[in-house]
């Protein structure tokens, strides 16, 4: 007797129909026509079964604030967020907005979110609200939090203390923003300090790194060198790295990417946000996204993520990771059929690897977290932003829009 039997689905790896048997919170069997009695049967009706979407770069503390940004620049976003923090932000406000967003994200098939949380606030209102939310929503979404010094690690003497306090409170990952420090050297110094903190505490690192249109920004290089030196391969992520789109091509291809490969660092691109925030000051306009095709070809694990949803940086967004993958495919020239299938991996398996999510996937023994999409293939799912008809979390059928 199994607990849930999902009949007649195809998966990214099984084009012929299979059944999926779930016992407790684990996948017990994936095979054609499983003959086992089941407490509950779900008719897959030939739909696409996938492991849940993973959004590995997001900002839950600013989500749904709907603060307008008339210039559409990163700078105005940071300034408007600073004003919001000063005038409006409360712990309850963060909790309520983030919970509302996560509830919607779950219905869109997302079951893991890595969210940065601003630790430049002396009261750590965001960190308090989101560590609570992380616990309260653990039966729906795995929330991983990053201590993020939005205004700069050296923007105030207390920021270091606040960052450590956030980590003590249960924030999981060490963040940074070296390109936003006033001097280049301070950006570099901040990386040395932050990596040291992560190494001492055995934590992962995810840095907003070289998120600018400055072709001379060199913090990814420093982050790679430190990852190598400190033996932190596989535990460090460079987020955004949009400056790599305008750097000298010899430098990127002959020095930087090989350094990133040998260091074993991961990359997260945010195609929706960065195509909008970047490239304001150049003509012809360039593509403000890391060269995803070259990074993937070199063997780097690359995720695409949403970053923002109706906040001071981005007025749109709908927790739709197929939209993220689709935009990434356009900007990154990833339209070959294999490349498109890889783009689907950038919003599912690859970010799961980056977040080190245990038991992620559709193999036997994995957590029984699944989404059934009304799509003929993963490419079709991205093409039409296919409906998420059935959502299963730890073996529980939480949403079944086909059930009556
Ligand atoms: Fe971000």
SSE map:
Blueprint: E1 2-10, E2 18-23, E3 26-31, E4 38-50, E5 53-58, H1 74-87, H2 91-107, E6 110-118, H3 125-136, E7 142-148, H4 159-169, E8 173-176, H5 184-201, E9 205-209, H6 219-229, E10 236-240, H7 249-263, E11 266-269, H8 271-277, H9 292-297, E12 302-304, H10 321-331, H11 337-345, H12 349-355, E13 370-373, H13 378-384, E14 388-393, E15 396-400
Parallel strand pairs: 1-4, 5-6, 6-7, 7-8, 8-9, 9-10, 10-11, 11-12
Antiparallel strand pairs: 1-2, 2-3, 4-13, 13-14, 14-15
Helix pairs in contact: 2-3, 5-6, 6-7, 10-11, 10-13
Bound molecules: fe (ii) ion (FE2).
Give the overall shape, derived from the CA principal axes: globular
Task: Enumerate the spans where pLDDT stays under 50 for 5 or more consecutive residues.
Answer: none
The number of distinct β-strands equals 15
Helix content: 25-40%
Q: Enumerate the strands of the largest sheet in spatial order, edge to edge or round the barrel.
A: 5-6-7-8-9-10-11-12
* Largest β sheet strand count, sense and barrel closure: 8 strands, parallel
Oligomeric state of this protein: single chain
- Count of the domains: 2
CATH topology of the largest domain: TIM Barrel
Helix and strand sequence: EEEEEHHEHEHEHEHEHEHHEHHHEHEE
State the distance separating the first and last CA atoms: 24 Å
Number of helices: 13
> Strand content of the residues, in percent?
15-25%
CATH superfamily of the largest domain: Metal-dependent hydrolases
Bound molecules: fe (ii) ion
- The value of Rg in angstroms is 21 Å
CATH class of the largest domain: Alpha Beta
Structural class: alpha/beta
CATH architecture of the largest domain: Alpha-Beta Barrel
User: How much is the average pLDDT?
Assistant: 96
């Amino acid at each position: 007797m199994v607990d849930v039997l999902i009949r007649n689905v195809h998966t990214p790896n099984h084009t012929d129909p299979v059944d999926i048997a779930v016992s407790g919170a684990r996948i017990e069997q994936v095979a054609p026509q499983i003959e086992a009695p089941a407490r509950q049967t779900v008719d897959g009706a030939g739909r696409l079964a996938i492991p849940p979407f993973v959004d590995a770069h997001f900002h839950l503390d600013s989500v749904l604030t709907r603060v307008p940004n008339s210039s559409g620049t990163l700078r105005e976003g940071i300034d408007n967020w600073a004003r919001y923090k000063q005038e409006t932000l409360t712990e309850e406000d963060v909790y309520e907005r983030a919970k509302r967003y996560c509830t919607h994200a779950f219905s869109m098939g997302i079951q893991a979110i890595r969210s940065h949380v601003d630790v430049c606030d002396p009261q750590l209102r965001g960190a308090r609200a989101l560590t609570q939310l992380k616990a309260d929503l653990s039966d729906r979404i795995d929330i991983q939090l990053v201590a993020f010094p939005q205004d700069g690690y050296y923007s105030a003497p207390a920021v270091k203390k606040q960052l450590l306090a956030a980590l003590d409170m249960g924030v999981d990952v060490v963040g940074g923003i070296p390109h936003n420090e006033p001097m280049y050297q301070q950006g570099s110094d901040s990386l040395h300090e932050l990596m040291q903190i992560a190494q001492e505490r055995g934590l992962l690192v995810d840095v907003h790194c070289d998120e600018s249109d400055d072709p001379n920004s060199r913090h990814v290089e420093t982050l790679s060198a430190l990852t190598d030196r400190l033996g932190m391969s596989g535990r460090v992520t460079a987020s955004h790295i949009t400056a790599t789109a305008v750097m000298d091509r010899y430098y990127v291809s002959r020095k930087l990417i090989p350094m990133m490969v040998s260091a074993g660092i991961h990359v997260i691109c945010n195609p929706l946000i960065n195509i909008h925030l970047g490239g304001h000051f150049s003509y012809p306009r360039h593509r403000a996204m890391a060269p995803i095709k070259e990074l993937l070809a070199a063997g780097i694990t690359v995720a695409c993520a949403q970053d923002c949803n109706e906040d001071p940086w981005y007025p749109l967004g709908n927790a739709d990771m197929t939209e993220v993958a689709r935009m990434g495919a356009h900007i990154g020239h990833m339209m070959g059929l294999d490349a498109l299938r890889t783009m689907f991996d950038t919003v599912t398996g690859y970010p799961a690897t980056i977040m080190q999510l245990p038991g992620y996937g559709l193999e036997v023994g994995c957590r029984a977290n699944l989404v059934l999409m009304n799509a003929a293939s993963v490419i079709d799912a991205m093409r039409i932003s296919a409906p998420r008809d059935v959502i299963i979390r730890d073996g529980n059928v939480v949403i079944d829009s086909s059930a009556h």
